[in-house]
Design a protein that fits this description.
The protein has about 475 residues and is mainly α. It has helices at about 15-40, 45-60, 75-85, 90-100, 110-130, 145-180, 185-210, 220-225, 225-260, 265-280, 285-300, 310, 320-325, 330-335, 345-350, 370-385, 400-410, 415-425, 450-460, 460-465, and strands at about 1-5, 70-75.
Length: about 475
């Protein structure tokens, strides 16, 4: 399988850095093709090039377009592997380029150029690595099964791994310049998503080659491998559908919460995005980043169980009222506890109102006792609250809000995560949020995310003791900063 960027951040697709990077990838692909021509000559069989290019086009049309953030999957890597042996490096480069030139969907020009260059480079490099690792290029018809396995299968797997790494590195690079995503984080994400599949489906590429040349089936082998290719594509389609079902579940939960508190519409999505950026900046793995993002998305889901008179209060809230609102942390965990794919996010939902000094709720955890996912969500939550306009105050500017965060580092918030926030805001633009259209100007109650509310409860141990804790939160292995 080959992974491609679905669409890097549109706002930076036309930036000079992105254009320069894509141009560099194009030059790299051209150089690889020229090296392949110098070492191996022109394609060995133009009919084979045409058949394989047609199969590559088919793989693009049938690709799975949604298997996670900015990732697509197609089986063109199998075609490129077979091309590396059947038609050589230059032929494989042509197959990779043609497979993405003739696209039947609309994409920005720079995305097309990147995809063409990426797959062309993968084809050339696969052919070169196959040849340099001793792969058979001319079959005499008398090769034994052991010879074919050793001199075709092993070099082909090495070429497959090389293509996988090149694919991950170049995609991580373009996403870095286009959207600020850390290269290491994106590479690990891509390898965890499709790395093992590359190895497994490399076997299909090997069978493709065996059918085409040693078995003498020729171009008809392309028809024979369509069945396993279709099964592979179906499997990834099921995986993509599972992810889409998860996304629909999240959207339904967030919609329910925002209907309860329309003055905070969009808050969950913004906290989720900022939490993801923070997790990336802190070097977390792909699974941990997804759990952090989901925790950010659902951190306030427990508010659906808080009476509306507290959330939409048209009067200043009393201390007793804040105790009631604080119950949303425990309520949120109870609401989503049985949803399996959310298990890694429960700690973030439960403990995002803990304080670094131990004076938060619901459990009074301090420092690194607080799960990292909760410390990250806490920083994202407070920052978005500060940069959001309220009926009782204007939104703070980014620099002003960041200074407030730094002033609270070490007491309210984790200083390591606050420091990461400063770095994140250099790479990612952030705009203060006006009040949603139609939100009532008569809502006078302080939002529970305001730093003043946290300080108010921190001074009252008697109130914190009345807030229900979160029993038996299943905790996966924690990652600490």
């Amino acid at each position: 399988m080959t992974t491609e960027p679905a669409q890097p951040a549109r706002s930076r697709l036309g930036s000079g850095a992105t254009i320069s990077f894509v141009a560099g990838v194009g030059v790299f692909a051209l150089v690889l093709a020229l090296v392949g021509y110098e070492l191996d000559g022109p394609p060995r069989d133009w009919l084979a090039v045409a058949v394989l290019a047609s199969l590559g086009i088919t793989s693009w049309v049938l690709r799975e377009t949604d298997v996670g953030s900015r990732v697509q999957l197609s089986f063109i890597s199998i075609v490129l592997l077979a091309a590396a042996v059947i038609v050589g490096p230059v032929g494989a480069a042509i197959v990779g380029a043609v497979g993405t030139v003739l696209q039947f969907d609309r994409q920005q020009f720079i995305v097309r150029v990147f995809n063409i260059s990426l797959f062309s480079a993968m084809g050339s490099l696969g052919g070169l690595v196959y040849a340099q690792t001793g792969g058979i290029q001319a079959f005499g018809g008398s090769e034994s099964a052991v010879t074919i396995l050793a001199s075709v299968g092993i070099p082909l797997i090495v070429a497959d791994v090389t293509q996988c790494l090149l694919n991950a590195i170049l995609i991580a690079g373009v996403l870095r310049v286009a959207s600020g995503t850390r290269v290491r984080t994106q590479i690990l994400k891509l390898l965890s998503t499709s790395g093992l599949a590359y190895i497994g489906y490399g076997v299909i590429g090997f069978l493709f080659v065996v059918l085409w040349i040693p078995a003498g089936v020729g171009w008809f082998s392309a028809i024979l491998v369509l069945a396993p290719l279709a099964v592979a594509q179906w499997a990834f389609g099921q995986y993509g559908e599972e992810l889409r079902a998860h996304d629909r579940t999240l959207r339904a939960l967030v919609t329910a919460e925002e209907k309860k508190d329309p003055t905070n519409a969009g808050h969950s999505q913004k906290v989720a995005q900022l939490s993801e950026w923070l997790a990336e900046a802190l070097g977390l793995g792909h699974k941990e980043i997804q759990d952090v993002r989901t925790a950010g998305m659902l951190h306030d889901i427990g508010k659906v169980g808080v009476p509306a008179r507290y959330i939409r209060a048209r009067r200043p809230l009393e201390d007793e009222d804040f105790v009631v609102i604080a119950e949303h942390a425990a309520a949120g965990v109870e609401l989503v506890r049985g949803i399996e794919f959310l298990s890694g996010s429960l700690d973030g939902i439960a403990h995002h109102h803990e304080r670094y000094d131990g004076l938060g709720y619901p459990a009074g955890l301090a420092g690194e006792q607080i799960p990292l996912v909760a410390r990250i969500v806490a920083v994202a939550d407070v920052f978005d609250a500060l940069t959001t306009e309220r009926s009782y105050r204007p939104a703070l500017g980014v620099e002003e809000a960041l200074q407030v965060m730094r002033d609270r580092a070490g007491t309210h918030l984790d200083p390591v995560v606050v420091d990461a926030l400063g770095k994140v805001l250099v790479r990612h633009p952030w705009q203060p949020t006006p009040r949603p259209d139609g939100s009532s100007a008569l809502v006078l109650a302080l939002d529970h995310d305001e730093p003043e509310v946290s300080d108010r409860l921190a001074l009252r141990q008697d109130l914190r003791e009345r807030i229900h804790g979160v029993p038996d939160v299943p905790r996966p292995a924690q990652v600490t900063s």
